[in-house]
Amino acid sequence: MIAALMPTYNRADLAFERGEGARLWTEDGRRFLDFGSGIATSSVGHAHPHLVKTIAEQAAKVMHVSNLYRVPQAERLAARHVAASFADSVFFCNSGAEANEGMIKAMRKTMAETGRGERFRFITFEGAFHGRTLATLAATGNAKYLEGFGPKVDGFDQVPFGNMNAVRDAVGPATAGVIIEPVQGEGGVRPAELRFLRELRAMCDEYGLLLGLDEVQIGMGRSGKLWAHQWAGIEPDVMSAAKGIGGGFPLGAILAKEHVAKHLKPGTHGTTYGGNPLACAAGNAVLDIILAPGFLDQVDRVARHLWRALLALKERNSDLVEDIRGAGLLLGIKLRDGVLNTDFQAAAVAEGLLTVAAGQNVLRLAPPLIITEAEADEAVDLLGRALGRLRAAAATPQAAAQ
């Protein structure tokens, strides 16, 4: 008999009752160090006093009015994002998939409104993940995710990640632009080389194409800068954001330059919940925290400390760990053949550490941005113990059942 809650996830048997900072407690009192943060979403940790207070105060006033009326909280949040980024205008929605869907529409609409309606195709990349809607699944291109959902939405041409020759070869008369994650999260925590991002920007300028960046997972401070593309010194034409921008409250956004944003006129795009007073109050509280003096410097400092500690962990466990990869506080541990990331994830849970599996047999670390160096060291120690469990299980197969 099917469960009341539709079984679209293989859920771990963990039910969390409360959280504080980078810690979570289950209903039966077990404590965990959270280095998954709801898949890079609880950016300022659990139960952050400023975020909690802001949400409670706004909820007691008004939560939702619809976009038929002005929403001062959204106006303020948009102005703050514009001031802190490349963008001239912002559209708020509810999730990363919605933000990517809206970004695709904005890029196509820009081409149509500027006399280039035949340009509707996008170059995307192998290993990408852009969401679960039909269009974003097509942009993702993963055959497993597409299976059983009918004809794939047309308009997406996938090329190898990081291969500039393949990108140029894929450009044709119907190409509208390029969509890329500066760091692929689901695809195995693979960062694009900064040079590659610069070359994409230059190529788009050369051919009159649009550059769209998906910063749903790596954005909002996770790289050590507010937006990951800032490390490359480039600006996109349009960008999707979500996850960390609401600190755990559902919030997504499309950030765009005027030459793109101006084409999303009344009637071309919309949302019922997106940008409501409660979500935008949460978004403003998150910005208060992340834009505070020294916060991003601290993220960068702790991230570099964690990176060095993981490299040392790899050296001590080279029989199990092949590589350390990623950027900022989105890092991955690539395991050797025969060592499964799901087994590593389970071993980490047994030691009291929460992580997230990713593609290419990688274990993903995406802790809250408020972690300390001490918590980073604790996580690496727990990972070392988890690797010890894997090694013992491999040496004594019956140990795996104990």
Description:
This protein is of the alpha/beta class and 402 residues long. It has two domains: 128 residues, Aspartate Aminotransferase, domain 1 (Alpha-Beta Complex), CATH 3.90.1150.10; 242 residues, 3-Layer(aba) Sandwich (Aspartate Aminotransferase, domain 2). The chain is built from 13 helices and 17 strands. It has a seven-stranded mixed sheet with strand order 4-12-11-10-7-5-6, sandwiched between helices. A hairpin with a 2-residue loop joins strand 1 and strand 2. Helix 2 runs antiparallel to helix 10, helix 11 runs parallel beside helix 13 and helix 12 crosses helix 13. The protein is globular. The two termini are 30 Å apart. The model has no long low-confidence stretch (mean pLDDT 96).
Order of helices and strands: EEEHHHEHEHHEHEEEHEEEHHHEEHEEEH
> What spatial order of strands do you see in the largest sheet?
4-12-11-10-7-5-6
Average pLDDT metric: 96
What share of the residues lie within helices? 25-40%
The CATH architecture name of the largest domain reads 3-Layer(aba) Sandwich
CATH topology of the largest domain: Aspartate Aminotransferase, domain 2
Percentage of residues in DSSP E strands: 15-25%
Number of strands: 17
Distance between the termini: 30 Å
From the spread of the alpha carbons, the general shape counts as globular
Number of helices: 13
